[in-house]
Specification:
Blueprint (H helix, E strand, L loop, with lengths): L4 H9 L13 H11 L4 E6 L2 E6 L17 E5 L2 E4 L4 H11 L1
Length: about 100
């Protein structure tokens, strides 16, 4: 089955973050915003006696095993921990840089 002409035109504009579609849309930015909207929140609280990190672990499908879901809390060093809010692949790049 051949893809529709509209779909072929959309594919021309969704491969780069700086290419606008004829309608003035940046598809890559829209895709990123949609992915982030599905991510869980994370918060960190610093007190006089320590730090508390909390992260929401969203399960998007009941078919996913909860033990296999991606982790939102990571230990970078003995004195550094990170709570991830957003896309884990982006966070991995930042964590590797921080290490």
């Amino acid at each position: 089955r051949q893809p529709s002409k509209t779909r072929l035109m959309a594919r021309r504009y969704d491969s780069h973050t700086t290419t606008f579609s004829p309608e003035g849309r940046l598809y890559q930015v829209e895709y990123a915003m949609e992915a982030i909207s599905h991510a869980g929140a994370a918060v960190g609280i610093r007190t006089n006696s320590g730090v508390v990190l909390a992260a929401e672990k969203k399960i998007l499908s009941k078919l996913l095993e909860t033990g296999v879901a991606s982790e939102k809390m990571h230990k970078l060093a003995d004195h550094i921990a990170v709570a991830v809010a957003g896309v884990n692949s982006d966070a991995n790049l930042l964590m590797n840089s921080a290490r």
